[in-house]
């Protein structure tokens, strides 16, 4: 009787391990969809709020949590040439009783450059409408005593602002700028949003 029960347990155990759904192997998260572009392979990133989607260079490595330059961004990538791409979201707050607006939010961001980064210098602030019709503004500024260039696109939906920033040494900026411009142009409201 004990032998029969033992054999039956072995048969059940082997049958369970043969089932795909029972295997105890880790399941990798679904990779971001990758598609070809004029600048190479691009992945697709959806922000944590589920409001926005944006392309990103698929060959760049995920650096979130590994580098202080990621500044706690939920999406932080680094290229082989040490260029960074950061995607962040924030909740905008209305000022003086007015509803939140991206222009007002960016006025505060620009005014606070000195307080957050002592040597930040605004170079340009220009409007941009993406290929999908999302309106926003591009800020370009220098940091690190003028040796590093940042180009950042800001947009908003309701009270949620999103920023996509590219950061590089000045000598690498001309090569990185077309990538930044392409990525900015792909920012869109997510389809099938929550």
What secondary-structure arrangement, pairings included, does this model have?
Blueprint lengths: L1 H17 L15 E4 L2 E7 L5 E6 L3 E2 L12 E4 L5 E8 L10 H10 L1 H4 L4 E9 L5 E9 L4 E10 L2 E10 L3 H14 L1 E2 L5
Antiparallel strand pairs: 1-2, 2-3, 3-11, 4-5, 5-6, 6-10, 7-8, 8-9, 9-10
Description of the molecule:
The chain contains 4 helices and 11 strands, in the order H-E-E-E-E-E-E-H-H-E-E-E-E-H-E. The protein has 194 residues and is of the alpha+beta class. It has one domain (32-189): Mog1/PsbP, alpha/beta/alpha sandwich (Protein Transport Mog1p, Chain A, 3-Layer(aba) Sandwich), CATH 3.40.1000. Strands 4-5-6-10-9-8-7 form a 7-stranded antiparallel sheet, with helices on both faces. Strands 1-2-3-11 form a 4-stranded antiparallel sheet. It starts with a helix and ends in a 5-residue tail after the last strand. Mean pLDDT is 80; it is low at 2-30.
Main attributes?
single chain; about 190 residues; alpha+beta; Protein Transport Mog1p, Chain A; 7-stranded antiparallel β-sheet; 4 helices; 11 strands
Give a nutshell description of this structure.
With 194 residues, the chain is an alpha+beta fold. Helices cover 23% and strands 37% of the residues.
Shape: globular
Query: According to CATH, what is the class?
Result: Alpha Beta
Low-confidence stretches: 2-30
Rg value: 23 Å
Provide the residue-averaged pLDDT. Answer: 80
Tell me the major beta sheet.
7 strands, antiparallel
């Amino acid at each position: 009787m004990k032998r029969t029960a033992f054999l039956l347990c072995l048969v059940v155990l082997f049958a369970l391990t043969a089932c795909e759904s029972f295997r105890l192997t880790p399941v990798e998260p679904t990779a971001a969809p990758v598609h070809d572009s004029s600048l190479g392979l691009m992945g697709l990133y959806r922000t944590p709020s589920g409001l926005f989607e944006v392309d990103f260079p698929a060959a760049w490595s995920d650096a979130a949590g590994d580098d202080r330059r990621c500044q706690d961004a939920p999406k932080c990538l680094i290229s082989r040439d040490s260029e960074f791409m950061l995607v962040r979201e924030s909740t905008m707050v209305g000022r003086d009783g007015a509803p939140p607006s991206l222009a007002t939010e960016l006025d505060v961001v620009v005014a606070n450059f000195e307080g957050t980064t002592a040597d930040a210098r605004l170079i340009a602030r220009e409007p941009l409408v993406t290929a999908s019709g999302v309106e926003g503004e591009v800020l370009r500024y220098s940091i690190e005593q003028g040796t590093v260039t940042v180009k950042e696109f800001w947009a908003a939906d309701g009270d949620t602002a999103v920023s996509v920033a590219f950061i590089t040494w000045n000598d690498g900026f001309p090569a990185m700028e077309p990538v930044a411009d392409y990525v900015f142009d792909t920012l869109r409201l997510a389809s099938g949003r929550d």
